[in-house]
Write a structure and sequence with these properties.
Blueprint: H1 2-15, E1 27-31, H2 36-45, H3 48-55, H4 61-68, E2 77-83, E3 86-95, E4 102-109, H5 118-132, E5 137-142, H6 147-153, E6 160-163, E7 166-171, H7 178-197
Parallel strand pairs: 4-5
Antiparallel strand pairs: 1-2, 2-3, 3-4, 5-7, 6-7
Length: 198
């Protein structure tokens, strides 16, 4: 019976495009306020290129530590890639709470983990989180030199434009379905179990 259930879950994950596209020895899960030390350590490990890509410019350690405290903000949804207990990549969804149901998405991936499928899987989970919250517009903003982020955004939308010196990608998440909610429930339980083991 367990084999049937596991097979159904795996089939549903493939249907939703949530199978990790990486061979790295780690796992993806939600990031909770209790993960603040791991989140802070991840931000501080970002090299100058990673900091520039994530925050559109140079940023000090002190500013990163302060930013890490925002993990507890109730409206933020974070997902991460963990390897051997260390957080190596994150995706953040921040709803704008406007009438158009807009949110902003931002990713940070450490050197050595880029271009290996981590960002793609994190973006997929962020889009699923947007769908579950009924968000209609997902904005991804990056520097014109951040080709990796632009290429990632193009996997989900053709709407890329220049705005205020940045490249702005607009993603329209499809409405959530019953399968979306079921997959989220399974992932939440799995993520809690993984967080307890770390």
């Amino acid at each position: 019976m367990n084999h049937i259930w596991e097979g159904t879950v795996q089939s549903k994950r493939k249907e939703l495009g949530l199978e990790p596209k990486t061979f790295l020895p780690g796992h993806f899960r939600r990031i909770w306020p209790s993960d603040e030390p791991a989140y802070r350590a991840h931000l501080l490990r970002l090299d100058p290129e990673g900091r520039n890509m994530r925050f559109a410019g140079a940023i000090s350690d002190e500013a990163l530590i302060a930013y890490g405290r925002r993990i507890a903000d109730a409206d933020r949804v974070l997902h991460g890639f963990f390897e051997r207990g260390e957080l190596r990549g994150t995706a953040e969804l921040v709803p704008a709470n406007d009438a158009e149901k807009t949110a902003e998405a931002a990713l940070s991936v450490e050197r050595g983990y880029r271009r290996r499928g981590v960002g793609l899987e994190l973006m997929r989970r962020t889009i699923r989180a947007a769908r579950l919250r009924g968000l209609r517009r997902l904005q991804v903003r990056c520097l014109p030199t951040n080709r990796a982020m632009q290429n990632l955004a193009r996997r989900f939308t053709d709407e890329l434009s220049f705005e205020g010196g940045d490249v702005l990608a607009l993603i329209a998440p499809p409405p959530a379905t019953g399968a979306t909610f079921a997959d989220e429930a399974v992932e939440s339980l799995r993520g809690l179990a993984l967080s307890w083991c770390e």
